[in-house]
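Hi R.,

Quick one: here's the YbaK/aminoacyl-tRNA synthetase-associated domain-containing protein sequence you asked about.
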Amino acid sequence: MEALAELERVQTRILHRISDLELSHLPQHFSHSLSLQSSAAAGPNADADADASTTTEGRLSAILLANSVRDFSFKRVPSDYYEWTLEARRDILGAASIHHLCKSIVLVNTQAPPNVTDCSDRNYSKYYVVVVQYTARFNAETVKNFLYALNDGKISKKKFNMRLAPEEMSAKLTGYEHNGVTCIGMKTDIPVILDEAITKLNPDFFWLGGGEIDLKLGIRTSEFINYVKPFIVNCSGS
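And here's the predicted structure, written out as tokens:
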């Protein structure tokens, strides 16, 4: 099963690269014209094809490709996926190990002063998204210490208290429901913290939420970092 999943990822990457090469050799006005002609020629199926670009997978794929991310893959999973063991989840995704299975959680600083209400200052934001492994034990205190140091100790430690955001708040900020949260294409531009342990995984390709409960996204770690530009923090233990 792992071999088949890897073959699927390779095929997806090849198709993305072929598409990029084809488009790069077309003048911009010709490419747009071709798109319109193709849509008209497709007849009644044109709307179905156009709808693909409005799906979560289509929208996130477009965002990733527009930001030079090429090595990624989406995978649909059964509705009872979260009732499975980590080993079973690993197998259906074709992940290299259970340690390559990650999640995105939204944190809120409950002690931020009244004037800090949004994410306009990524060094001292009201909210952060943390990407951490399922096999790791998240440590909010390390995030607090990191942010305190990031601000050169100019903000009292009493003004940092990172807690898991309620599901309703997380959904409002990200646009994604519980178990579907991803830090790609969020409704709010929330600063991202990537657990350092994920950067040490081999191979450097991890899985996280894909915007829907039954949609998962696999992505090359280096490309994720280049695009998302997360803070990399040692914020977990095994």
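The first strand starts at residue 72 and ends at 76.

Cheers,
M.
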